[in-house]
Amino acid sequence: MYAAIEAGGTKFVCAVSDHDFTIKDRKHIPTTTPQETLGAVFTFFDQYDIEAIGIGSFGPIDANPESAHYGYITTTPKLAWTNFDFLGAIRAHYPNTKTAFTTDVNVAAFGEFKLGAAQGKKNVAYYTVGTGIGMGYIHNGQIYMGRENPEAGHFLVRRHPDDHFVGACPYHQDCLEGMAAGPALEQRWGKKGKDIDPNSQAWEIEAYYLAQASMNTTLYLSPDIIVFGGGVSKQAQLFPLIRSQFAKILGDYVDVPPISDYIVPVGLGDDAGITGALLLAAEQ
C-alpha cells in the first residue's frame, strides 16, 4: 500500500491507498507537538503494510536533498516544530520504507497535474489561498525546486484603488499574502471569507490581487494552466472576476490559452494534497 501525509499547521491528514490510488483509510490528527502528533501518525500507519510514504509539509522546510538539513521544518512560528527533523523521524520509524518529501503546496500541485484540473499539461502553477498563500510549480512534468521552494505568495502587488487595508503579512505587510490570504479578508471585512456576501466588493478587491498573481506567474513562468485551490476555490463568483481583471492588466502583452481554461479552480477539491502525496509515494 501507499501512504501519504499532508502535514498542515492545524492538522495532519494521513491516508493509505491501493495501487489504483483508491483511499482505503484516512485519519485527521491535530498538529500539537512532534512527539504527540507523530506518535498518532505511526499508530495509524503501523496497521498497514506500507511500501512508500509521500509527505507534503507545512513550512518553511528544507526540501533540497543535497542540504545537510534536508527534511527539516525550519523557521516555522510553530515553536515545537522549529528546526525539527521531520523526515528523519519518519525514516527512523520506517527504516526500510521509501519516502518522498516536499511542501504541502507542491503535493497539491502534483495531484492536480496527475489527476485533477491540470491533467494533460506539462507546466502547471498551483496556488493555494487560505490561511496563507503558497504556490507549487510543475515544470515539464516535474516538481520545480530552486535553492529553496519558490515563495510566490509573497510577491509584491499593487494596491487596489479602493483598498486602504495596511496588510496582514508580518514580514512584508502588503504583499500578496498580506493582502489576499484568509486573515487579510477577515481583518479587512470583519468576517471570514465564507461568511462574506458573494456580491460584496470584497471579491472584486480579492480578484484584483489574484489577477496580479496570475499575471506575474504568466510572465515569469509561462505555465500551461494556473489552478487556484484552498478556500478561495470554493468562491465560484471569484473566477470570472480574476479572469476579467487578469485580461485587463495583461493587456494582450503575451499570448495565453483561452482564459476560461487557463485560470481555473482546483479539480480535486480538498483531496489535492493527499492525492499528490500518494502519487509521490508511488513514484518512489
UniProtKB/TrEMBL annotation:
E.C. designation(s): 2.7.1.4
Enzyme class: transferase
Recorded superkingdom: Bacteria
Protein's recorded name: Fructokinase
Pfam families, alphabetized: ROK
Keyword tags: ATP-binding, Carbohydrate metabolism, Kinase, Magnesium, Metal-binding, Nucleotide-binding, Transferase, Zinc
Similarity comment: Belongs to the ROK (NagC/XylR) family.
GO molecular-function terms, A-Z: ATP binding; fructokinase activity; metal ion binding
Co-factor requirement: Mg(2+)
Catalytic activities: D-fructose + ATP = D-fructose 6-phosphate + ADP + H(+)
